[in-house]
Design goal:
By secondary structure, the protein is of the alpha/beta class. It has 2 domains: about 120 residues, no CATH class; about 200 residues, Rossmann fold (3-Layer(aba) Sandwich). It is built from 7 helices and 14 strands. The strands form 3 sheets. Strands 12-2-3-10-1-13 form a 6-stranded antiparallel β-sheet. A 6-stranded mixed β-sheet has the order 6-5-4-7-8-9. Strands 11-14 form a two-stranded antiparallel sheet. Strand 7, helix 5 and strand 8 form a beta-alpha-beta unit. The longest helix is centred in the first third of the chain and has 30 residues. The chain is globular and about 55 Å long.
Length: about 325
């Protein structure tokens, strides 16, 4: 009889333990530490092979991972209708060759065909800052008319990455998607001692610019165009600049366009590609696991929909745990 009572006691304790573990298992199935998670929103671009139609993507088709944790998707909506708001800034390097003027017609056409929900700004990078010639506006005709030829001179100091940081720090907060089209050769002329070295190098300012962009949720697309001066004829400088541009776009979820180290005949094909990107974006919200302090946290996206690729920034800003 005593043995039966002990077995019943252990059986009861085991059952209670299982009941206590059920909520934890449910929380893990929904995406990890749900009790202290914080909502994070980011812009995602969905792409398919050329010529194919983008299929419907449902929230349950999207997989978000932070480290080893699978996070819970809170919201997944197309950037259309009432959620279509976009702040798009066209950033041109004043050190670009003046032949860039041949591409202004393509840029004006691209600007004039943007939807009414898109606000556009225009600025020129020079001396590590940005001369804003047109603040954000939905008057696309006026914006297109503010485009001018680049000076064809870098000024005393010229870094497209420090200029980008200057722009992002002055960016007004509207709650819309934030994207930049950056036209430059990617060469940092502030580090003049690099210009005589051979071999590829990476610019530390690219990492700084990408962190500010990720912190503010800004996607940066880059278009390569040769700059003025002797640097354009330095293979190593031009290649390194192009590599830095591609790295900045990759880290922020954008695209990078170039045709070797030569100037493109037309921007139109690239701008058409960018338009498809802007037309196929989603706003993704998910429950992230916070650290003790606010910080950038690496995330990975995937989808179970065949043939679809999802692109977003490599890291998102996650508020700290206030507990």
């Amino acid at each position: 009889m005593k043995i039966l009572k002990k077995l019943w006691k252990y059986r009861t304790a085991f059952a209670l333990g299982i009941l206590m573990l059920i909520p934890l298992a449910q929380a893990a199935g929904k995406g990890g530490r749900s009790s202290d998670s914080v909502p994070v929103t980011t812009t995602v671009t969905a792409t398919v092979a050329n010529g194919k139609r983008l299929p419907d993507i449902r929230p349950q088709d999207v997989v978000v991972r932070q480290g080893k944790d699978k996070l819970r998707v809170v919201d997944w909506v197309p950037a259309q209708g009432q959620r279509a708001g976009l702040d798009l800034f066209i950033l041109i390097d004043d050190a670009s060759d003046s032949h860039l003027g041949g591409q202004l017609a393509d840029l004006r056409d691209f600007i004039s065909h943007q939807p009414a929900s898109t606000s556009i700004g225009i600025g020129y990078m020079r001396n590590t800052t940005v001369e804003i010639v047109q603040p954000f506006t939905r008057d696309h005709v006026r914006t297109a008319n503010t485009l001018r030829l680049p000076f064809g001179s870098p000024g005393a100091f010229s870094s497209p990455y420090l200029s980008t940081i200057d722009l992002l720090k002055r960016w007004p907060d509207s709650g819309n998607r934030r994207e930049v089209i950056m036209i430059t050769d990617g060469i940092d002329r502030t580090h003049r001692h690099w210009h005589w070295s051979r071999g590829l190098h990476t610019n530390p300012d690219v990492e700084s610019a990408s962190r500010v962009a990720q912190r503010t949720g800004t996607i940066i697309h880059t278009i390569y165009y040769p700059g003025a001066g002797p640097w354009r004829n330095n293979y190593w400088q031009a290649s390194s600049g192009q590599m830095d541009m591609a790295r900045l776009s990759s880290k922020t979820g954008g695209q990078s366009f170039y045709l070797g180290l030569q100037a493109p005949v037309s921007f139109a094909p690239w701008l058409n590609n960018l338009q498809r990107t802007l037309d196929n974006q989603y706003l993704l919200s998910f429950a992230a696991n916070p650290g003790k302090k606010p910080a950038l946290q690496a995330v990975r996206l995937d989808t179970e929909v065949a043939g679809v690729n999802l692109a977003t920034q490599e890291a998102v800003w996650v508020p700290g745990n206030r507990q």
